[in-house]
Amino acid sequence: MKRRQREQRISDFDLDLDDDLMLSRPGQRPRAPKKSGRRDPHWNRRVGRPKRSGDNSLAYGFLIFLLLAGGIYAWTQLGGTDGSRNRDPGRPGTHSPAVKGPGTLQLTSTPAAAKIYLDDKYVGDTPQTFDKLQPGQYALRLELPGYQPWTDNVTVKGGTASTVDAKLKAAYYRLRIKTNVRKAKIKLLDTHRRFKQGMLLKPGRYRVQVTAPGYIKATHEVTIRDQDLVRTVKLAKAKVFYKVRIKLDPPQAAPLARIRILDWPKPYKRDGIRLSEGSYTVEVKAEGYKTKRHSFEVGKSKKTVRVKLISPGVKLTVNTVPKSAEVKILNYKESYIPGMLMPPGKYQVQVSAPGYQTSKKWIKLVKSGSFKFSLKEARFSLKVATTPKNATVKIVEPKNTDYKKGKKLKPGRYRIAVSASGFETQHKWVEIKDRDARLSVSLKKQGYALKLRTVPKNAKIVFSNKSIHYKPGIKLHPGKYQVTVSADGFDTQKHEIEITDKPVEKKIALKPNKFLIRLAVDPSNAKIEMLQPKIAYKKWRRYKPGTYRLRISAPGYRPKIQVVTLKDKDIKLKLKLGEDLGRLTVKTSPPGAKVIIIGHPEPYSPGINLLPGSYRLEISAPGYKTVTKPIIMTEQDLALTVKLEKPLYALTVNPTPQDATIEIVDYPRKYKPGIKLPPGNYLIRALKENFRPTSRWVRIKDRNVTIHLKMDSQAPVLTN
Question: How far apart (Å, rounded) are the C-alpha atoms in residues 111 and 127?
């Protein structure tokens, strides 16, 4: 009843629609009232049907209805029924029918487009003006994603206009960032605020940076709209790490120092630490020194970081018994002087004297002080602590030496045997030099060898329920062991092995799910490529069942395409390249001439194999003309004979006088101007009557030669 009355009251709002339209539930369009007669709870009259003139029965009925309605109204005011709340004009969400005429309500908001709810019913978005509202008080609520709900009670008076301008406050929502690294650092970029899990933020876009030592930095953008946001950021582990060692100056401070790489989860060890590439800060704390922080960069190689510590120094005094004993500081370069000033650190002090046991002791020097060394005579005790405690201890070497707890022994090497029932006997060597010796021996329970033979042999064997590593022949205590056997290309198997009172040997054959493609290729240096799928081919690699397309090639051979189909077993193939090659043999004159196959990757050798096709040969020899010869190779062998010719050069002799006769001595051909001659030395002679003969040697090497010969005239012989 309450719900129906409330809807009727809201339905009287006039949202710039027809007077007969009514509002339905929030988010729905207004609907028109039914035409059947009904009663208006505010005006207590029948609506929807016009009064007809002359209908007295209707008038009497209406009068009786008014009397009854007035009585009911008075009774509700005095008796306190539920209807009294709906008619109380002073309560929120009620109207006052005493004021005549509708009112106007103007709603605006900053920002705009907020949803308007009057008495919990959606009536539109801001800005909005309602012209024909019934006078009274209304519960007003504005909602806008990303902003806090705005609520108030507004009073609409008849004949007047009410104005409401709502300033919406931005909503704050919680932001949580989850990562796969426990101690990851989260930072909000582009803002001075420090990130905290669940912090309140205004709606908007934010850049979040997540870092963790040993992981790759990740930057993500998050958008907060109208609700809390939880974002998961997964960091990828760094794959490459480099060895970093910290060296202290002075080195004696190293045993006192506590070295810590800030923001790195793993502790620093004496032999160094492995860090990924990036910037780091090392903190060194040591007694007697000032705390030092040093920043350094790790690049793509191992690194040694030197850190120099500062200290005023401390004094060292060693008191010895006897006083004549000699004092040496073994790990310090300077000789000991009583009261000497030294940097704080750990030092190994050796005190020795004739007839006494030499004493070596590490001292921790962090402040000025004295240390006392009392030397003992040269006999020392040997104490062996065993597990179990009731184990028997014997001195095996040297013979005829009994072991007793606390018995003094001479310096030397002793071989100790420790045994107990149900345990394996252990032998230990202990050396007694210049001090008492202590030895701890923990016996292992009697174990039995376990040997697993796997197919394939390189299968990995892991104990599932024990933190031990398998080795062939490993000795294990009696019990049940679960092993997992796996190998690439095979199905993993799990087995339970029980060891009782004897060695166990078992064979485990894995079922392959990948298979080998083995190709025996001639020539052996041929290159094998996987064309489909595009992956690298390896001889011992296993492949999933399917079809594979391979290409086999070698210099001087025609490539071959081989299609292989894997099903449920390995495949072995023999392939031979060059079955369609021909042999080329070139005989030259002179012998030993150089032969080159132009554009061919391999040098020529007699009988070289060539694919069918066209080739160009170049044959050359010193002192001969180079010959270029094209050939066509088929699948048959080809033999060629190439004769080289020596080059010829022109010889021109210009004699004076010009009509002199020129001859080439000891040359079969007659001289003509520009005669072509092979390289060599030639004797040229010029002859003419009444002139003295003239000769000259000419050398022809690698070019045309022109010479000038001038003849001397010969005087005539006079006779009587």
Answer: 10
